[in-house]
Amino acid sequence: MGKNSGVAARKDDLIVQRLGDEAIVYDRTSHRAHSLNHTAALVFEKLDGKHSLDAIARHVGKALGRAPQKEIVSATVNDLAAADLLRPGASLPRRLVLRGLAAGLVPMVVSIAVPPAAHAQSCVADGFPCSYPGASGECCYGLQCCDFGSGDIHCAPSCP
Prior knowledge:
The strands form 3 sheets. Strands 2-3-4-6 form a 4-stranded antiparallel beta sheet. Strands 1-5 form a two-stranded antiparallel ribbon. The chain has a two-stranded antiparallel ribbon with strand order 7-8. A hairpin with a 2-residue loop joins strand 2 and strand 3. By secondary structure, the chain is of the alpha+beta class. It has 5 helices and 8 strands, in the order E-E-E-E-H-E-H-H-H-E-H-E-E. 25% of the residues are buried. The chain is rod-shaped and about 75 Å long. Helix 1 (38-46) runs antiparallel to helix 2, helix 1 crosses helix 3 (70-82) and helix 2 crosses helix 3. Helices cover 27% and strands 24% of the residues. It has helices at 38-46, 53-64, 70-82, 94-98, 117-120; strands at 7-9, 14-19, 22-27, 32-36, 48-52, 109-113, 144-147, 153-156.
């Protein structure tokens, strides 16, 4: 956890969107989206490299109307580190995590891969390269894969 023991920090290059009590975190480097439940979102918002784990445990406990939740914070830090959302060295020994986790308060981090926008496109747009002339289904509706000579093969409304 770096030079300040007990302090973990979020990675840079993350986009965070709060959805009620939960949060969606998108990592622009790995193109992965992560859904954080309420408990995990409470911890994540305080992982700025300035708050100690004890301070975060007090924050989580207060928000949940309970005593400080150090085990919950420890489990969440490990889950977030495993999801690669924290700066290197942020995971904690598992023995700290396994003690005292209460049902219903268990943090949850669910991750999925999100393709870059160019890969998510369902068809090839006008003027963009396509596989070979006459290829069907590759170009967007109303376009066809055309050979314009000298290796210039792209989708267009009509071929020469």
